[in-house]
Specification:
The protein has 417 residues and is an alpha/beta fold. It has a domain of 257 residues: 3-Layer(aba) Sandwich (Rossmann fold), CATH 3.40.50.150. The protein contains 14 helices and nine strands. A nine-stranded mixed sheet has the order 7-8-6-5-1-2-4-3-9, sandwiched between helices. Helix 11 links the parallel strand 5 and strand 6. Helix 11 crosses helix 13. The chain starts with a helix and ends with a strand. Bound molecules: S-adenosylmethionine (SAM). The site of S-adenosylmethionine (SAM) has 23 residues, from strand 2. It holds the Pfam family Methyltransf_23.
């Protein structure tokens, strides 16, 4: 008996008794004048604890009491049900009826041939907000880490990959020999001479886009992200591509003695040749460009024409159709509006485009095809391609056509640094 009272004297129990004195429980036995026997006390304690765990198991609480005690939970459940209902209804309405079918390169508005993005500033700010959330920033960083040797970025837009590139080799003359050595050693994990010889860095950068308005923002970003103030002397704070290039279509701007080149032109024409003395690019990068040009297969063909066979890589980060029909239905329905705002067809079948390119471009091989991240519902793809060198075996060309000399073979460039 003493042990039972000792238990009842503990704070947790005291609190329970205090509470119950305010709200008499409907099933509680009437109090007896007789002192309780040990067995009846045990039974009471057991039934109280049972009641505490399941208050409504024997008799219902009045609704107002129940509501007062549970209003937060009830409110939350109601709000969740409302959200779910609204989402399901809008999803159902959006997906009822036939989705418009656009055939790649025959969409109602031809993307290429005009700067399709109405407001490059709006485009850029919109992406600032959403890319981190959906894991795109992380993918851009991963992609830039693969950009080594002589790099070409096609449809570079406002230069959203530029802050992630390794500019050290391009800007060597802006740092002391000691600083440069330390940075190289750090990259190799303070390794041996052999490690240093194997170190891959970006040796030159060439960026191409059809839109000078996008390139204006790209140049501004370049000034901000290239380290050691290397661009500050050669680019004004608010650069205008057209003013800097000051020449006919197809020309570009060269910076840091040709190690950085920004070029305006249609990537469906042969692409710029690599810097003087270099035969082909080591890395060709392209993010969210296959969705933006009229003929994405031609674009892949042009990239294949300028990349080094075997060791060179074409790396694409794209968005398009998902695994799920439900998601594709939504993409189809909103595709035209999205194109008008952002200049890209986000419902294209990128996997299908890569397959077609593979079947048409001799030597083109898919090294990697991934749908990274869950947040984008399978709409984003990472593709790594290479060109197998068919020449030594069969004596036939690889598809890298003779016209790969590109615009820079003939077009004049303005040298700014
Ligand atoms: C959706 S944006 C992507 C921009 C950038 N690559 C990025 O990741 O933010 C597509 C870009 O492709 C460019 N573009 C569209 N058609 C092109 C073409 N035929 N040649 C070169 N660039 C083109 C647009 O001007 C735009 O900058």
């Amino acid at each position: 008996m003493s042990s039972i009272y000792a238990h009842r004297g503990q704070p947790r129990h005291r609190h329970r008794e205090k509470k119950s004195s305010h709200k008499p429980l409907p099933y509680r036995a009437a109090s007896s004048t007789q002192p309780p026997s040990p067995s009846s006390l045990q039974a009471t304690a057991a039934s109280e604890s049972l009641f505490q765990k399941q208050p409504s198991s024997t008799a219902p609480q009045p609704v107002d009491q129940l509501f007062r005690a549970r209003w937060l939970g009830l409110f939350g459940a109601g709000a969740a049900a409302l959200c779910l209902g609204t989402f399901t209804a809008s999803f159902w309405i959006a997906n009822s009826g036939e989705a418009p079918q656009y055939v790649t390169s025959r969409e109602p508005v031809v993307p290429t041939g005009r700067p399709a993005i109405e407001s490059p500033v709006e485009f850029d700010q919109h992406l600032d907000r959403s890319e981190w959330r959906f894991g795109i920033t992380k993918l851009r960083r991963r992609l830039a880490a693969e950009a080594t040797g002589h790099v070409l970025e096609v449809a570079m837009g406002t230069g959203r990959n530029m802050e992630f590139y390794d500019w050290d080799a391009v800007t060597t003359e802006y740092v002391s020999a000691g600083e440069r050595n330390r940075s190289k050693l750090a990259k190799t994990g303070w390794g041996t001479k052999e490690n240093l010889a194997d170190l891959l860095e970006m040796e030159s950068f060439t960026g191409v886009d059809i839109s000078t308005a996008m390139l204006d923002i790209g140049l501004r970003r370049l000034r901000q992200v290239v380290p050691h103030g290397a661009m500050e002397d050669v680019l004004p704070k608010q650069p205008s591509f057209e003013q800097l290039a000051r020449s006919e279509a197809g020309s570009g701007v060269q910076l840091l003695r040709g190690k950085v080149r920004i070029v305006q032109g249609d990537a469906q024409s042969p692409l710029p040749a690599p810097p003087k003395g270099v035969d082909k690019y080591d890395t060709v990068i392209q993010t969210f460009g296959l969705c933006s040009v009229r003929d994405p297969t031609l674009l892949i063909h042009n990239m294949a024409a300028v990349v080094k066979p075997e060791t060179g890589r074409i790396i694409l980060l794209e968005h398009g159709r998902s695994w799920w029909d439900l998601v594709n239905g939504l993409l189809d329905r909103s595709a035209k509006g999205h194109f008008e705002r952002f200049g890209c067809w986000w419902n294209r079948d990128i996997e299908g485009i890569v397959e077609v390119a593979k079947s048409r471009i001799p030597g083109l091989e898919v090294v990697e095809f991934q749908r990274p991240g869950w947040a984008t519902l399978g709409t984003h793809v990472w593709v790594e391609l290479r060109i197998r060198d068919a020449k030594p075996k069969g004596g036939r060309d690889t598809g890298a056509d003779e016209s790969s000399n590109g615009w820079l073979g003939s077009a004049p460039l303005v040298h700014l640094g």
